[in-house]
Amino acid sequence: MPDSLHVSLDDWKTFQRNAAHTGFANIRLDPTVFTTAWTWQRPAGDSEPIGGINAVATGDGKVFVTKDVYFSQAAVYALDEATGTQAWTYALGQMHSEGPAAFTDGKLYVPSQDGNEQGALWALDAHTGTYKFKMSTGGQWSNYFAPTALGDAVAQVTYDGGIYEFATANGSQKWATTSNVSDQSTPALDATRYYVYGSVYGNAALHVLDRATGATIADIADPFSSTSDYDMFSATMLGNMHDAIAFSGGGFSGHAASSSEQYESRVLVSYDLSLMDIGWRSANAYLTHPPWPTASSTRPATPPPRWTR
Fold first, then answer.
1. 130-142, pLDDT tens digit by residue?
2. Distance (Å, rounded) from C-alpha 221 to C-alpha 292?
3. Beta strand pairing status for 102-104 and 148-150?
4. How far is CA 259 from CA 119, 154, 262, in A?
5. pLDDT tens digits for 53-84?
């Protein structure tokens, strides 16, 4: 990739790149001229059943990788983005699960749960790999997507429907609440609200929460949900038409603790945040999250038709 394009792009800070989970980069690349710059594999020798790596994050000129574990040794690896050489590693210890990392403002946030069902969100110095602080979370045998950070706060979702907001300055808990969301999810954030979809502990709905307090602003029911798996394997995406888009229903990877992509195709549902109602649903079902352009990017001139009752 040319250097001019490289430096013009923001880092891939969390799941689907940013706090809105758009997964969108406003560039055009020719894959026919790509060449391999470097490769990296999880160190050999881990005696546990999954043996993979989680989705990566980037920042501070590094690529941050965590291990996909099931009752095994969890660790974080920081790789030089240009060469792939290991800059530092941090061992979390024996864990039931370890989720993908998120980067923001010089810190790396890594979720985990130990064998005593104690959840934690670790904060590390992204440049040196040194420990900063650790935030406690609940949730029985939780498995994780990357946390979502925006401004002075970082958020994490757990298996028991818990949604936690912590201060990025020192890890103090700002608030915690519960909903019918489960693990393998992460909320979308904007300046004033949280958006998180749930279909496990109650009727499927998009939950809109106040960022300052965690109080529920609205629960917008999803009439299209046909699954209620224990894992979500999705995150709400924020559009540029005052809408939020989410997969309908839950998902499952086929592994007890893996954060690898789930294998059940689902329809997408758009929620009109002005009316607090359904805007539309897709005609087709999809497996993976699409890139979703932001307000500053080109969008189709005609949006999908509204859903009518």
1. 999 999 998 788 8
2. 22
3. unpaired
4. 16, 20, 8
5. 899 999 999 999 999 888 889 999 999 999 99
The CB density around residue 172, as the number of other CB atoms within 10 Å, is 10
Residue 194: CB atoms within 10 A of its CB come to 25
pTM over 0.85: yes
Q: Is 32 helix (H, G, I), strand (E, B) or coil?
A: helix
Q: For the chain, how big is the Rg over CA atoms in Å?
A: 19
- In angstroms, the CA 127 to CA 69 distance is 24
Task: Supply 192's token pair.
Answer: 């004033």
9-51 pLDDT per residue, tens: 789 999 999 999 999 888 888 889 999 999 998 888 776 667 7
Tokens read off for 8? 């013009």
Which amino acid is present at 210?
D
Nearest to 156 by CA among 216, 111, 96: 111
Strand pairing class (57-59; 52-53): unpaired
